[in-house]
Design goal:
Elements (H helix, E strand, L loop, with lengths): L20 H11 L12 H10 L5 H10 L17
Helix pairs in contact: 1-2
InterPro entries: H-rev107_PLA/AT, LRAT_dom
Protein name: LRAT domain-containing protein
Pfam families: LRAT (PF04970)
């Protein structure tokens, strides 16, 4: 294994409440065996934030929709709520 380093990125810890540890573990276990991976709608970052905070968020998805909509995308509710001004 050697000198490898890992970085913890709990990027919403200062903004969102963190669920209790037993709830995080329950959410993770409830996800075992589920199918439906999608790079923008259901990826590992969605899984991690859904378990930790109870809300599924992916920074890559946010960046994609912001770029695709020329900056008019605003997250509200679920991952694919699109609000055009």
């Amino acid at each position: 294994m050697g000198d490898g380093k890992a970085r913890i990125n709990n990027f919403k810890d200062k903004e969102w409440p963190i669920l209790p540890a037993d709830e995080i573990v329950k959410r993770a276990r409830d996800s075992l065996g589920k199918e439906g991976y999608h790079v923008l709608a259901n990826n590992c970052e969605h899984f991690a934030t859904g378990c930790r905070y109870g809300d599924r968020l992916c920074g890559q998805e946010e960046a994609f929709w912001s770029t695709a909509t020329l900056g008019t995308y605003k997250r509200r509710g679920g991952p694919f709520t699109l609000i055009l001004n």
